[in-house]
Amino acid sequence: MLATRNDRSPLVSVVVPVYNRELHLERCVSSLLDQTYEPIEILLVDDGSSDSSGQICDRLAESNDAVRAIHEENGGAGAARNAGLAAARGEYIGFVDSDDWIAPDMYELLVGLVGEHDADAAQIGLALVGGEEPNGQRVNSRVRVLEGKECLQKLMEDATFGVAAFSPCRCLFSRRALDSLSFREGVVNEDIDFVYKAFSGCSRMVFSEQVEYFYFQGGDSNSLGGLKSKDFDLYTAADILVELASKETYGSICHLAAVKRARTSLSLLCKIAYFGIADASINKRSTVASLQRDLRRDLPLLIRAPLPVSRKVLALLFAVNYRLTELMVHGAQKVGLG
């Protein structure tokens, strides 16, 4: 359902944190300027970039009335998003990462879904892409309307089976849904507890499977690269999630939060195996040994959890022999490249 535009259409504010994305920023902003929905404001929050991203933000703001440039000292994505939230004037709030892009009708679709169902938020499908690829399947998509704790249950199920479940970029939130919420600053994986809290504050949400958001997985994407010290913030984020979910008795929310926590060591081991270690202060041998201990401790929970079989097998392999599994991963990568 597309929104009907008129003089009283609600303003949508889109917060875009920007840090050293000079190669991809204009592609991202072009997809926002091409939106079929209006009115829209695009808040480019330069997070102390050391490349030309800040200048690109200024140039785009000077040439487009819908774009506003905000410059902050480097504080991470959480701080940049908070600055954007503070400056946003819209009735609805969305987020887009500066190396991603969106379909032309994404916000028209989201505003229409929220309005049609009198919801607090709406979510669309996401596709992982490696470049300028086709927009994917965007027809005959299912729409679900959920209320109360059902929204949290779906979030936690998606976190078990899906991709980027905790990304706020898939959603359009009413301002009231984000009232008093902010991202944790100076850390990574700050979006996990933010999205959980946002969903918990929604009385009704609309979920569409239509793919409208394109999550860039190219060479310098934020999601790629070797292990850094900050990647261990995932443990903190998972602990916070478990604490938040411990208050819930509906469905399997609490159990799935524990599964998410148990997967932390596996996620970090996978990152090391695929991309290596980028931080010279991290000792690979001792780090792998520590992560393996955590994985072995949590392995029974993971084996019983509603995870894909491939993920369970990978967990078992890493727990038994990291080095052999790493070699298998590298072999699979070479086959894929060939």
TrEMBL record:
Residues 13-167 form the Glycosyltransferase 2-like domain. CDD domains: Glyco_tranf_GTA_type. Its EC number is 2.4.-.-. It comes from the Bacteria. Keywords: Glycosyltransferase, Transferase. Pfam families: Glycos_transf_2. One of its GO terms (molecular function) is glycosyltransferase activity. Gene3D superfamilies: Spore Coat Polysaccharide Biosynthesis Protein SpsA, Chain A (3.90.550.10). InterPro entries: Glyco_trans_2-like, Nucleotide-diphossugar_trans. This is Glycosyltransferase family 2 protein. It comes from Adlercreutzia shanghongiae.
